[in-house]
Amino acid sequence: MILIISFVLSLFSFSHASVLDFCVGDLAGPIGPAGYSCKKPSKVTADDFAYSGLGIAGNTSNIIKAAVTPAFDAQFPGLNGLGISAARLDLAGGGVIPLHTHPGASELLVVIQGSILAGFISSSNTVYIKKLNKGDVMVFPQGLLHFQINAGGSSALAIVTFSSSNPGLQILDFALFKSNFPTPLIVETTFLDAALVKKLKAVLGGSG
Amino acid sequence: MILIISFVLSLFSFSHASVLDFCVGDLAGPIGPAGYSCKKPSKVTADDFAYSGLGIAGNTSNIIKAAVTPAFDAQFPGLNGLGISAARLDLAGGGVIPLHTHPGASELLVVIQGSILAGFISSSNTVYIKKLNKGDVMVFPQGLLHFQINAGGSSALAIVTFSSSNPGLQILDFALFKSNFPTPLIVETTFLDAALVKKLKAVLGGSG
Amino acid sequence: MILIISFVLSLFSFSHASVLDFCVGDLAGPIGPAGYSCKKPSKVTADDFAYSGLGIAGNTSNIIKAAVTPAFDAQFPGLNGLGISAARLDLAGGGVIPLHTHPGASELLVVIQGSILAGFISSSNTVYIKKLNKGDVMVFPQGLLHFQINAGGSSALAIVTFSSSNPGLQILDFALFKSNFPTPLIVETTFLDAALVKKLKAVLGGSG
Amino acid sequence: MILIISFVLSLFSFSHASVLDFCVGDLAGPIGPAGYSCKKPSKVTADDFAYSGLGIAGNTSNIIKAAVTPAFDAQFPGLNGLGISAARLDLAGGGVIPLHTHPGASELLVVIQGSILAGFISSSNTVYIKKLNKGDVMVFPQGLLHFQINAGGSSALAIVTFSSSNPGLQILDFALFKSNFPTPLIVETTFLDAALVKKLKAVLGGSG
Amino acid sequence: MILIISFVLSLFSFSHASVLDFCVGDLAGPIGPAGYSCKKPSKVTADDFAYSGLGIAGNTSNIIKAAVTPAFDAQFPGLNGLGISAARLDLAGGGVIPLHTHPGASELLVVIQGSILAGFISSSNTVYIKKLNKGDVMVFPQGLLHFQINAGGSSALAIVTFSSSNPGLQILDFALFKSNFPTPLIVETTFLDAALVKKLKAVLGGSG
Amino acid sequence: MILIISFVLSLFSFSHASVLDFCVGDLAGPIGPAGYSCKKPSKVTADDFAYSGLGIAGNTSNIIKAAVTPAFDAQFPGLNGLGISAARLDLAGGGVIPLHTHPGASELLVVIQGSILAGFISSSNTVYIKKLNKGDVMVFPQGLLHFQINAGGSSALAIVTFSSSNPGLQILDFALFKSNFPTPLIVETTFLDAALVKKLKAVLGGSG
């Protein structure tokens, strides 16, 4: 038997050398267009493939009565290069995830608790809106403006996942009113009222 | 005002013509390597982007005490071409999702209820196993053998999502024992016992 | 000599059969996630690879004093599947291309005439703005909100190209105010004033 | 036992519906940028995944004393969408595969018999040349001009494979001298002699 | 003439600066999801694009009477980023390449000598099996279980190539019986006998 | 109001951490198959997304009476990873961009001034030629030989863009006559005259 084992051990010896089944992100290494550098396979453990941050409810004591808790590659480096990521949406009564896009990914939402009114707007300016109940799923195609609103009386919870390990998140109100986008340029490129822009910048903390 | 509107309507008129933000699958049309043909945009409604099939618990009255309910492009054609899909895992007490692979996708699992012991095996023959509680997330890199087992006393529920709208699913036991794979070839390519192979084929319905 | 030629003709005979150097779009055929069906190679002529639509100035007699003339795959089917497309921007004095995104492509702008103030907003709510003169180039990364404004006294002209044959175009004001997006939902997901929303819908032709 | 089997049969019933592990090309159906339409899975047999055309030596009785026998998706539709294909190179004594490119794929050559001198030219105009013996492998990066020459006294045989199921093949001499490329334009864009161009067109069958 | 040359030298001077026709892997540098870092172009020689390791027969004096000799990017860094790789299969009389998958690539097999019985199992649990003779080619779609068996009396030799420079290799028996996969979990997720699992672990060197 | 702002600031705090909307190339860092390493987001400014090098006419005082001025990722690092790049073509009277390929990209040409005769040759040895006037657009599918000639009396100017941030450029005459490609091998693989090859090497500076 020992003889047989030694035969086997000398066989396929390469399979130890070329482990690129995965590329757990080394957040301290160089980053490239395809993602983070890979942690050394010999230092990778099972903990690198699991993440517990989505188990904790987000704090919804804010003006939108909602919270987004991401599990993107920056939070969960085991996702690096695998083309998938997730986030948790907590919506208190009256909670709203304002209009936003993910520049680099499509999104799939699953309602875990409560009910949610969700929708997106196409390039043809058609709005697709659905009321979703517990267990319902909705998909938001890549890069299009979309929103989620608590449609029931009590708290709602959803898990959303993305077709990228780093989908990005551009919240329309933050892009306009929490950024350094100069007010005259906002007015010129959106037709919004300067007074309204200034008021919303005051609320959200924008400058310029 | 009417003048202004007519100016606007003549502007960007092309945006109505080239709607390919999405490609809702037309299951009756030709299929290509990139997926189903697209349903005509004019026939697409909000219903095409939502799916309610994951809201219903799978039937776990079977030998594995578990059920997989998919929302792949074949069930939910709105996913076609978007690089994402989902499934629901129901695990009764003692339930097991047997060893399997998804040939074309990585998988992200979120525990919704109960606790689950999950793991995968790398190309280097290292096994990465984690016990996951409610809210925990685990990723299974593309194409590798993995499993999920109910690790608590009561029912467990998980939502899994994939980095493809058609991830595929190859269950090891079904590939071997529920297929037409001839028993002598199974024995020769796995070193399993012919008697065992025949016994498992009888249970699972294999031939050959 | 004749002998030699016949030898040659029998050689590499396959190269006539498998012409998929290109896939000129057949706009009447089925569409899939990767684009239009291919026109038969035998019917393809040099005309399929050229397009003259960008040679004509767009009509800027409208409220934005600007026009976008696209050469996407729907207008120029020779681009189908080649991962590139173009458009022409005409900006009269005071002209503005309002805030918009391309859900599926990065954009490269070249100023042909005049000067243009252009910018985009990142996921981190940072605004990157540049004044561009004739010959200057600017890139707008995929899926992010961006704008272009005539920054000189006279007309400006730019050619923009995209990293997709069908980049899509979502104009923020059109998505909000020229669509069927119900006013109460706009207010709830953007914090804008209902009165303002209604006013802009009246101008742009939105409903709901 | 019968009870158990029926349980199993009702489980995972979806796996019969969504078979897109592969997409055997239906050469009669519509073609798109990603390849041929898929043959119905129910009509696919093991024969679709095998091809015997590379077992026959190509006819090298021609001016280049060489032959290329392809197994691209047009000849072997089972490759459709799988990102790989092959060809057989036969080189009689003195045989030459003239300078050529594959517009859409990198190439890997394995010498099966004899010895071959092979090389490619980079974008920096550096030539990388190797003499390869039986069992040696060489890679030619995508889209670069390369050649293979019999470097021994007797016949040589190589198998080449490509990183695409439809790599394309542009043979420099055929593009110039076996096409309808007008002689004055060839002279103008290559600095070659008109007399030489006409002579080579006469040999290879070009017009224009 | 000297004048002309100096004109030319000042032309296209950029083509020396941006050499990324290829990215020969620097095995000592950082690795990312897309592969190894690139060796400096100035240090690249023709030797980087050739590999002689497949010219030597693998040692088949082992229990499977077979050997796999890889030319993946870890062995042949010139393949890095080019989407192709190869391996040599040696099958002595009675030799078997046991059931395995390549998590990230499709495979193309060419029989160079002898005859081989090969097959794969689809997601629908259909087995596609072919007897292949010298010169025959077979394709194994990405991620599916497949095997190769010497089908003749004498030695067989095949060259296999892959649609990735790092296809991975997961051998079923090694994943189960040569790994640290705990025996109770194997039994629970495969329905195999604990006694059989322990026996095969003893032969193959597994633990747990 | 202060209370509200602090609520907002604690919300979505992650969006500051994971900025990978773009990956401005760090030309001094490691390079991988997907491009350059990313400059630190905190060091990125608006200047990184703009480039002024295409505003200057290339020097056409050379034998081809033409100049190519590139804006690839090596010159304009803001393009890194975004799948697009550009170049400026200056053609004096009688100017010619000789036959060339881009190994990794399709090209889109827009005529800005003058008129241009342009064409490409397919894998089937068909030549597609068009005379283009100001404003006309033409596409050259990936990897195929193509050319541009000034077709008017005065200077012509074109902007070309590519479906890659690093398209590569292989000029046929330079590959043959400005490289170290040994003359006997050129003759053998192209059927050109040794005398002609030597003459052109003398003009263009080739060796070997």
Break the fold down into its secondary structure elements and pairings.
The structure is a homohexamer of 208-residue chains.
Chain A: H1 2-10, E1 25-32, E2 35-38, E3 50-51, E4 66-71, E5 85-91, E6 96-101, E7 107-113, E8 116-121, E9 127-132, E10 137-140, E11 146-150, E12 156-162, E13 170-171, H2 172-177, H3 183-190, H4 194-204
Notable characteristics:
208 residues; Jelly Rolls; five-stranded antiparallel sheet; 4 helices; RmlC-like_jellyroll (chains A, B, C, D, E, F); secreted (chains A, B, C, D, E, F); homohexamer
Describe the structure.
6 copies of one chain form a homohexamer. Chain A is of the alpha+beta class and 208 residues long. Among the domains of chain A are: 63-168, Sandwich (Jelly Rolls), CATH 2.60.120; 175-204, no CATH class. Chain A is 16% helix and 34% strand. Chain A has 4 helices and 13 strands. The first copy, chain A, has helices spanning 2-10, 172-177, 183-190, 194-204, and strands at 25-32, 35-38, 50-51, 66-71, 85-91, 96-101, 107-113, 116-121, 127-132, 137-140, 146-150, 156-162, 170-171. In chain A, the strands form 3 sheets. A 5-stranded antiparallel sheet of chain A has the order 4-5-12-7-10, with no helix packed on it. Chain A has a 5-stranded antiparallel sheet with strand order 9-8-11-6-13. In chain A, strands 1-2 form a two-stranded antiparallel sheet. In chain A, a hairpin with a 2-residue loop joins strand 1 and strand 2. The radius of gyration of chain A is 22 Å and the shape is globular. The first copy, chain A, starts with a helix and ends with a helix. In chain A, 62% of the residues are buried. Strand 10 of chain C pairs antiparallel with strand 3 of chain F, so a sheet runs across the interface. Chains A, B, C, D, E, F: One of its GO terms (molecular function) is manganese ion binding. Chains A, B, C, D, E, F: Residues 52-198 form the Cupin type-1 domain.
